[in-house]
Structure formats: C-alpha cells, structure tokens
Amino acid sequence: MLASKLETFLNSEENLQGSEVRYITDKVTWQHYETLLTQLGDSLEFRLTYLDGILEVMSPSRNHESIKTRIGDLLLIYFLETNTEYYPTGSMTLRNPEQRGGTEPDESYCIGTNKEIPDLAIEVIITSGGINRLEVYQRLGVREVWFWQNNQFQVYHFRSETIEQFQPTSGYELIKKSELLPSLNLTVLAEYVQHPNPLIAAKSFRQTLNQ
C-alpha cells in the first residue's frame, strides 16, 4: 500500500512540473523508512523525514534548491574569510532508530571539530506544515537549527539544561543570533541570500566581512 501511494506521488503531475510538493503518511515502520532510504540512494530529488511512524516525502522546488545552495555558498565565504574551522555534511541522512527519528537537512555543518552528528542544520521552508522538524533534530542531537522562511532566518539553539522551559519548541530556544557562529550577522546574510545576482552577492558579502 505504501509503495503504491509513493509511486503515485512520485509520478504526480505537480511533481513532474517541478513544483515543491509534500506527501505525508502514518503507520510507517522504521524498516519501511530504511527501505525507502536504500531505494532512493543518493537521489537529491526527494527528501525523507521520519518521526514516530509518520513519514514525510518532499520534492524540493527549483527555488528551494537555489536558496539552499546560495546559503551554503555564502557560508563557505564566511568560513574562509573568518578562518572558522568547519566540516560540511550537506544533506546527509541523519537517523536514530532508538529515538525513531530521521531527516535530511538542506545544509549541515560541524563547527570546530568533525563529529558524527553535525552541530548546525539548516532548513529552507517554502511550504508550511509537515512533521515537527525541531522534535526530529532534538532526537538526533543537533545543537542548532536555522530555518529560512519568509526571507529571513529563525535560529533555534538547544537548551539541554532547561528543556522543560522550551517544551513547545522541543527544548530549543529561539535566539537572535547564532551561538555557534556569534560573529555572523544573519540580517546581512539574509540580504545577500535574496540578492538578484549570486555573483555580485558573493563578492559583496566577502567585502563586507573584510571591512
């Protein structure tokens, strides 16, 4: 049943036209989730997120992929210009069978030292709804999560000692600037993400960092 539903989704007219579409279903076992990951392999066409038996399959749009790539390009410039030790982990599949959670961020990084689980995950939100991403990242042990939505960044940092205080956001506190990259001005970064010319944006951002 699940396989037939997914086949219908994967071949839907919306998906074939390149629109961003989501398919969500429940009562999916961890084994089924693992099987789908294996079948999709390294495909960038679909992103899977799993939480407590609920599976979300998302086909990112061109706009989604453009934004996530531009964020990654600008962060690379930031790391180089500020001599920040970083280890990019991209959209690697993060999963924890004991915690019944798994996802594939748009971008992710280890900061300072290389680790099994990235310190930072970045998600581009084009369409609202779907699985609670913060709950998934909390179970996976990701320290900080950035959401790009409505042309701005929302930054959440996990508070392991005061989880109960931030229960509505799965233990993450909404903060004004990154605690992993405290010298990065996210308002300025957001301006360059939206710049109509990626090349000019990259050059101007580099100049801004060197001022």
Mean pLDDT over the residues: 92
Tell me the β content: 15-25%
Largest β sheet strand count, sense and barrel closure: 6 strands, mixed
Low-pLDDT stretches: none
The number of helical runs is 7
SSE topology string: HHEHEEHEEEEEHEEEHH
Helical content stands at 25-40%
Strand order of the largest sheet: 4-7-8-9-10-11
Distance between the termini: 58 Å
The count of strands amounts to 11
Shape: globular
Radius of gyration from the CA trace?
18 Å
Give a structural overview:
There is one protein chain. By secondary structure, this protein is of the alpha+beta class. Helices cover 34% and strands 25% of the residues. It contains seven helices and eleven strands. The strands form two sheets. The chain has a six-stranded mixed sheet with strand order 4-7-8-9-10-11, with helices on both faces. It has a five-stranded antiparallel sheet with strand order 1-3-2-6-5, with helices on both faces. A hairpin with a 2-residue loop joins β2 and β3. α4 packs across α6 and α6 packs antiparallel against α7. The protein is globular, with a radius of gyration of 18 Å. The mean pLDDT is 92.
Structural key phrases:
alpha+beta, six-stranded mixed sheet, 7 helices
Task: Describe the structure concisely.
The protein is of the alpha+beta class.
